Amino acid sequence: MDIIPSLNTLRSIRTTKNEKTFKCFRKGEDHDQPLSPMARLFHEPGSNVYIIGIMGVKTKISPDVFKENLVHTFLKNRRFSSLQVMDKENGSMKWIPTHVNIDDHVIIPELNPKIESPEKFVEDYISNLSRSHIENTKPLWDLHILNIKTSEAEGTCVFRFHHSLGDGMSLMNLLLACTRKVSDPEALPTLPGNNNKSGVAKVASIWSRLGVLWNSFVALFMFVLTALFLQDTKTPMKGSKGVEHRARRFIVRSVSLDDIKMVKTAMNVTLNDVVLGVTQAGFYRYLRGRYSETDDKRADVPVNMRFRATFFFNLRAATRINDYTDTDAFGTWGNKIGYSLLPFDIRFKKDPLDYVRDASSIVKQKKSSLEPLFTYFFTKLFIMLFGIKAAGKLNHKVFYNTTLWFSNVPGPQEKITFFGHEVAYIAPSCYGQPNALMIHVVSYTDKVIFVISADEETIPDPHKLCDDLEESLRDIKASAHSQMV
After folding, report:
1. How far apart, in whole angstroms, are the C-alpha atoms of residue 211 and residue 198?
2. Alpha-carbon distance 119 to 126, whole Å?
3. Spatial CA neighbour of 454 closest among 469, 473, 443
4. What are the E-state strand segments in 108-247?
């Protein structure tokens, strides 16, 4: 397997012995940098979140090629070659550069090629990762290479990053900076909406200031109530206390991007509106099954339930792929995300397109407010006034009082290779959050990929939830098609 073209001149790999994975450091060296308040927040109880990046490839994975390229890509970024060290005197944390032994970060388990159910094995392996944390004696990332054939890939690699290293956009940027187009091996992939302003700024600029202020006030009021006492209705999808400490099950399900585009065109809405509408319809279908085993559409789903997602927004001014380093003119790195509390209307709708219409209306309202900016800057201000621990408790309270996390990241529009291996799918997710469910949506070529992160104690049948999402898309597509005819 060849190394990607732009990295052909790599030098030989240098590692240290396992017993000496990092240099001793002198306190006060110029290169010691403090963690940002947002990065530090992800070390607090209830916010100690890890990002998982699952990548299926169409050929067997060459571990030596991966290791050699990682040294000259990931390790150029100081966050991936630094320890996060606590200062016992003042409780702050610093990035301390260290010598990295790449073999300590790349794990290659020995596998039986005759495993009866490869998909189940890969699923179980990733679930077991969510039971553990990375030791702070090394930079907080690792890569697991599973050279076993599944229905979608010849091999699977699983990246694990502590959220303090960066948010989903930062880490997606890092991974995509290591890729090239299949059609043009010298070119980086392109993302939807490159060089556009953030969605919040675009929508807010065309609404009247009065409307923006009103929507922001309502959002602020609901945020304060949620931080104080306002909880979502207890449903079979609402996690119990301590859910952040339990193992997760990660399920990956792909649907056709063309199907979603067809609905988008028929209804004159956005792709995100369709995705959220499908999700809302899928939740109703799933809850109806949990509350009653009957197929009767009037099954006993509670009326007027409060069911909300913490919906994350990227606050960067542009979405583009940059180099591997953690400082650049476009502000790619760090945790630069805000969030909105997004209500779902979980009830039977005679016209399946109403799920999309409702989702579109709510998202427009959220985007025409300053809620994502408010939650980002309010958290930073709260840290300054009351400290990291108080901010961690506040975040945990808000997140726990909602039902799920929801996030989406734009993916490549064309087929790509990662270190010379053609990519079959990309599936990012998280564990460690105080919710029983997270749904992450990413696009890749002609697919939209739903990634479910579920606490099996709360949601014992996450495959069923994926089936319900697929079935909901089919219903919505059929209704949209009949409307166009």
Report:
1. 19
2. 11
3. 469
4. 141-146, 155-162, 179-181
432 — phi, psi (to 5°)?
A: 105, -5
Phi, psi dihedrals of residue 477, rounded to the nearest 5°? -65, -45
Q: How far apart are CA 434 and CA 42, in angstroms?
A: 12
Mean pLDDT of the chain: 86
Residue 276 and residue 305: Cα distance in Å, rounded?
A: 18
Q: Tell me how crowded residue 379 is: count the other CB atoms within 10 A of its CB.
A: 20
Q: How is residue 279 written in tokens?
A: 């999700």
Q: Residue written as tokens 């002609």?
A: 446
Look up 163 and say whether it is catalytic.
Answer: yes
Which pair of tokens denotes residue 75? 């390790």
Residue closest to 348 by CA, chosen among 253, 179, 472: 472
Residue that is written with structure tokens 């960067």 in the block? 316
Q: Read off the pLDDT of residues 294-340 as tens digits, 9 standing for 90 and up.
A: 555 555 788 889 999 999 988 876 556 665 555 544 345 778 888 99
Burial of 231 (0-12, 13-18, 19+ CB in 10 A): middle
Residue from 162, 163, 421, 440 carrying the catalytic annotation = 163
What single-letter DSSP state applies at residue 90? T
- How many residues does this entry show for the chain? 485
Task: Supply the DSSP symbol for 433.
Answer: -
Backbone angles phi, psi at 473, to 5 degrees: -65, -40
Please give the Cα distance from 425 to 38 (Å, whole number): 30
Token pair for 182: 């299949």
pTM to 2 decimals? 0.87
Task: Give, as one character, the DSSP assignment of residue 89.
Answer: T
Are the C-beta atoms of 21 and 138 separated by less than 8 Å? yes
Instruction: Classify residue 7 as exposed, middle or buried by CB count within 10 Å of its CB (0-12, 13-18, 19+).
Output: middle
